[in-house]
Amino acid sequence: MTDGKIDVQLALRSNEGRLLVARERIRLLEAVAEHRSITKAAKATGFSYKTAWEAVDAINNLLPSPAFLTKAGGRVGGGAEVTEEGRRLIATFHRLEERLGRISTVIAETGVEGLEDALLWTIGRKISARNVFQTEVVEVKRWPVDVEVTLKVSEGSAIRAIVTNASVEDLDLVPGRRVLALVKASFVHLLAAEEAAKWRRNLFPGHVLSRLDAEVNSEIRVDIGGGKTLVAVIPRADAEDLGLAEGDEAFAAFDPDHVILAVD
């Protein structure tokens, strides 16, 4: 607080507390709506190209339907647009931010002595997992030790997770429960078609959105449909053996016991 004013920043979160959007991401959404291009929107808002795409993926993975749609031509040659869901998100954010501003003015006028701790509103945690999806429990299959939980990601797309019976009780995993499903990028495999045919669960056909090579590893983003994206970090030698390039067909997969579940 300075000069009798309080600077407040609104952050919208999912039901499970995961950061969905703050002011910077809303600016990015608005810039995409204006420029119809992720590249131009990133430049206009001061995001790096990579950070802008990470924000796009994060928002789309956490919303019921995508806020952004990318058009034919890929990340470089194509365009992008904000969906009705995205425009609703922008409008909701601005309405809430305006109300929060009025509240902060009242607090500033009445004083904050003794309330400093209560004004620390920027709660939330950062996590290392690159792949975070908002899901809904649709089925729980119990065995003596382990439990298989089926989670709806989007229409026609589901994640299966293996957890203990104790975890099912602790997290109250029942059909209809909203759950965050997290998968580290290093746990995601990219498979050739013949290998994919043998994979039993958590196999997602799609196409490569981008490939970033380092000396040892490659980071590959895969569009798995429904506005959802999976990020895989695999040895660069494996990426080269698979011959993966932007626009190529890809099969992303991960083991059910590599899925981490989180609830509020």
Q: What's the β-strand tally?
A: 14
- The secondary-structure element order is EEHHHEHEHEEEHEEHEEEHEE
Q: What's the tally of helices?
A: 8
- Secondary-structure-based class equals alpha+beta
Number of domains: 2
Summarize it.
This protein is an alpha+beta fold and 264 residues long. It is built from eight helices and 14 strands. It has two domains: 101 residues, Winged helix-like DNA-binding domain superfamily/Winged helix DNA-binding domain (Arc Repressor Mutant, subunit A), CATH 1.10.10; 138 residues, OB fold (Dihydrolipoamide Acetyltransferase, E2P).
Characteristics of this structure?
single chain; Arc Repressor Mutant, subunit A; five-stranded antiparallel beta sheet; OB fold (Dihydrolipoamide Acetyltransferase, E2P); 2 domains; alpha+beta; about 260 residues; 8 helices; disordered N terminus; globular
Q: Can you walk me through this structure?
A:
There is one protein chain. This protein has 264 residues and is of the alpha+beta class. It has 2 domains: 11-111, Winged helix-like DNA-binding domain superfamily/Winged helix DNA-binding domain (Arc Repressor Mutant, subunit A, Orthogonal Bundle); 127-264, RNA polymerase II/Efflux pump adaptor protein, barrel-sandwich hybrid domain (OB fold (Dihydrolipoamide Acetyltransferase, E2P), Beta Barrel). The protein is built from 8 helices and 14 strands. A hairpin with a 2-residue loop joins β6 (146-154) and β7. The longest helix is centred in the middle third of the chain and has 27 residues, at 84-110.
